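Dear support,

I submitted the protein below through the web form. The confirmation email said the job was done, but the results page showed an empty box. After a refresh the structure appeared. I'm attaching both so you can tell me whether what I see now is the final result or a partial one.
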Amino acid sequence: MADANNIADALVAVALRLAATEGWRALSLVDIAGEAGVSLVDAYTAVPSKSALLAAVLAGVDRRVLAGGPADGDCPRDRLFDVLMRRFDALQESRQAYIAILDDVVFDPLALAPVLPDFARSMAWMLGAAAVPTDGLLGNLRVKVLSALYLSVLRTWRDDDSLDLARTMAALDRGLGRIDEVVGRCPRLAGTPPRRAGASSPPRADASDSEGLNVERPSDA
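What the results page shows now:
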């Protein structure tokens, strides 16, 4: 049997291509496997359900963002802006497919529910790439706040047909500005300055909070 990760990648590529013209809801795993030239048993092993396929799509976006390494910026706000704009740039690569997914799944709470843990993990990794801690109760709160911000800006991206994503950048900047105001009243919600290379560990959204946070106040992006 072929490597499950390679099979999942092949299925995701075909699913995105088909979703761009046929929509996401209409796709079946059997049809996707057939189009990809993957046997049913291999497809089942790699992505046993439509929600597993969607999780694989989400993971593919994560990998493209994280391939850029840690975010640039002197404060959490700047680094989060960098990471999230990388994410929107990644979505641009298969824009029509991702719009189909948004229309059929992401803006439908019932359809989105099975992949919420995967989405939360994605947001934890985005925070990690921005050197914002995700440990403990505060970390869980940061993940939830970033998730809400990202979904809000995602609606703007969906309708932003500009080449430079100016509307998306403006919406993201406004959203981070609102978080900045909250951080001003509760500075522990901000993150720590970037860790030195090799000193960080993968972000975790469920660990216990063991230490206080030395906060650098975000500057305007």
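Response: this is the final, complete result; the empty box was a page-load delay. The radius of gyration is 18 Å.
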